[in-house]
Design brief:
- By secondary structure, the chain is α/β, with parallel strands linked by helices.
- It has a single domain, classed as Rossmann fold (3-Layer(aba) Sandwich).
- Helix content is about 40%, strand content about 15%.
- The chain contains 10 helices and 8 strands.
- It has an 8-stranded mixed β-sheet with strand order 1-2-4-3-5-6-7-8, sandwiched between helices.
- Strand 5, helix 3 and strand 6 form a beta-alpha-beta unit.
- Helix 2 crosses helix 3, helix 4 runs antiparallel to helix 5 and helix 5 crosses helix 7.
- The longest helix has 15 residues.
- The radius of gyration is 17 Å and the shape is globular.
- The two termini are about 35 Å apart.
């Protein structure tokens, strides 16, 4: 464990390659840990400022703030690979818009926005989640988190335990609000300069992370593979497959 410019970083493993993992909104390094489980080398699991135990951002976050955090951690450890989940994918896109050649390998999981801001029922749910956190209503937080879980696994005891743990973690701090409206990219054309091989992973029936957003991202990158999973695939129904895809994509190439 260490801190880089106010950003808490959990360091897992050792050796090469060095990969930085960026979590989603209201998440932390704990959210990206299962994704990194089978990736070889050193894995840097950051927690963005304004989230978890990292430095607070009292005025709210912007994609520039998150991109700065990602760049600071990557530079401190000479990371050559990057994985972004949801808002973390947006942070990675913002960083690549500034420095398209920063990484040798890229992975985007459940991208939620590209060149447009979001204002729809799914994003409204995030605001309701923040309100429940502020009110200290753990049952309401769990209920809102449960909406993102596939019906086939909602009744599992382990599911309720995991969501209860995440609800308590969210309620331990202030909910991370964006500062104004923003999109990760000014235009998709910025991605034409990003030549690192990429994998984009989406899942069906995910209102907050529509599969067509991931498809647009994969189509806009010069060298990208798209993997579309069934509902809840990333964390609930196809986690091992995601781990294996990331491990293979992020591994060092053998000369």
């Amino acid at each position: 464990m260490c801190r880089i410019g106010g950003v808490h970083v959990a360091v897992v493993g050792d050796g090469l390659p060095v990969t930085v993992f960026a979590h989603g909104l209201a998440g932390s390094s704990a959210e990206s840990r299962p994704l990194a489980a089978r990736t070889p080398g050193t894995r840097l699991l950051l927690t963005f400022r304004g989230h978890g135990v990292s430095e607070p951002l009292t005025a709210g976050w912007t994609y520039d703030d998150l991109a700065d955090d990602l760049a600071g951690v990557a530079d401190a450890f000479a990371a050559t690979r990057a994985v972004g989940l949801s808002v973390g994918a947006g942070a990675l896109l913002r960083l690549l818009s500034r420095d398209p050649d920063r990484f040798d390998r890229l992975a985007f999981l459940l991208p939620a926005a590209l060149d447009e801001t979001r204002a729809d029922p799914a994003t409204d749910q995030l605001l309701r989640l923040a309100d429940a956190v502020i009110a200290g209503d753990e049952a309401a937080v769990v209920h809102l988190l449960l909406a993102d879980v596939p019906p086939s696994v909602r009744a599992r005891v382990g599911t309720r335990l995991l969501l209860g743990r995440r609800a308590r973690a969210l309620m331990a701090g202030a909910p991370p609000y964006p500062r104004g409206t923003d999109a990760p990219l000014a235009a998709l054309e910025q991605l034409t300069h990003v030549h690192a091989p990429a994998v984009v992973i989406t899942q069906d029936a995910d209102a907050l992370h529509p599969a067509d957003v991931g498809a647009r991202l994969a189509a806009s990158l010069p060298d990208a593979e798209l993997l579309q999973l069934p509902p809840g695939g990333v964390f609930w129904t196809a986690t091992r497959q995601v781990q294996d895809v990331l491990a293979a994509h992020l591994a060092l190439e053998i000369p």
